[in-house]
C-alpha cells in the first residue's frame, strides 16, 4: 500500500503542478528584488500541488492524524492570503503559534505547562524556518522529499502504518513538485507550501515521539541542515540588532549560491547533508542512549564545522562580490 499510495501522490502533485503552470502561471508571482536569488518572476503556488498530492492519504490515515492535516490546510489558506495580499508579521506569527499550541495540546496533553510551551515554540519555529529556507531552486522541495521520506521509513520500521502512509505521500508529493522546482525553477512553494510543510515537519515529529516511533531528537537531526542554518542565522542577526523579520540574503545556503556554487551545487550539498543526517538518525534511533546522543551531537558538530568553513570563505568572497 505504501508504494501504491506514494505513486498516486506523485501523480496527483505532478499533474497539479502542470495545471498551475498552465492555467495560473501569472497568479501570485514572486518578483525578483534586491534580496532574491532568482532573476525573473516565478509563480509561488507550488505548495498547492504538494498539499493536493498529500491529500490522497486522508482516507487511509487514522483519525488522530486528521488534526495535523487540517491545521496544515488552515495555515496554507492563511499563507495564500499572505502570498497574494501580504499580512503583518505579528498576525502570521499568531496563527502559527495558535496552530502549534492546538496540535501540541492535542498530541501531548497532559504535560507540564513549561514543557508544553517549549514544544509549542519549537513547532512554530520549524514552521517559520522552513519558509526562511525556501529561497533557492530545489532546496526546500528536496529537503521535504528526504525529510518526510526518513519519517516514512522510520514509521514503517516501527509498524506505524498510518504515519508511514502520510509521510510517504508528503515525500512523494514533494518529489513531484521538485521536478518543476529544480534549477531553473518554474514554480516556487510559496508560503502556501513552505509554512504547512514546516508545520508538519514539527507536528508529525511530535506525533512520532508520542507514539514511540522515534526519540524526540530524531526530527531535529533529520532536518538539522535546515534547523541549523536558520537558527544560527537568526542568532547572528539578533546579535547585530537587525530586523530579523525582514527578508535578507544571509543564510548559509544563500551564501553558497552567491559564492559560486549556484542553485544546483547548493541543492546537491543540501541533499547530501540531509541524506547523511537522515541516515544517521535512522541508524541511531533504536540504539543505546549513549550512541543516540553521540550520533546527534556528532552530526551537529560536523554541521557546525561546515558552517565555520562557509563563514571563512564568505569573508574572503565579500570583497570580490562588491567589486
Roughly what is the average pLDDT, rounded to an integer? 88
Number of domains: 1
Approximately what portion of the residues adopt beta-strand conformation?
under 5%
- What is the first-to-last residue Cα distance? 57 Å
Helix fraction bin: over 70%
One letter per element, helices H and strands E, the order comes to: HEEHHHHHHHHHHH
What is the C-alpha radius of gyration, as a whole number of Å? Answer: 19 Å
Count of separate DSSP helical elements? 12
Shape: globular
Describe this structure in words.
The structure is a single chain. Helix content is 74%, strand content 1%. With 323 residues, the protein is mostly helical. The chain has one domain. The protein has a two-stranded antiparallel sheet. The radius of gyration is 19 Å and the shape is globular. The model has no long low-confidence stretch (mean pLDDT 88).
How are the secondary structure elements laid out?
Layout: H1 2-23, E1 29-30, E2 42-43, H2 46-54, H3 66-85, H4 89-108, H5 113-132, H6 139-157, H7 161-181, H8 191-210, H9 217-222, H10 224-239, H11 252-284, H12 289-322
Antiparallel strand pairs: 1-2
Helix pairs in contact: 1-2, 1-7, 2-7, 2-8, 3-4, 3-8, 4-5, 4-8, 5-8, 5-10, 6-7, 6-8, 6-11, 10-11, 10-12, 11-12
Can you give keywords for this protein?
two-stranded antiparallel sheet, mainly alpha, 323 residues, 12 helices
Question: How is this structure best summarized?
Answer:
The protein is an all-alpha fold and 323 residues long.
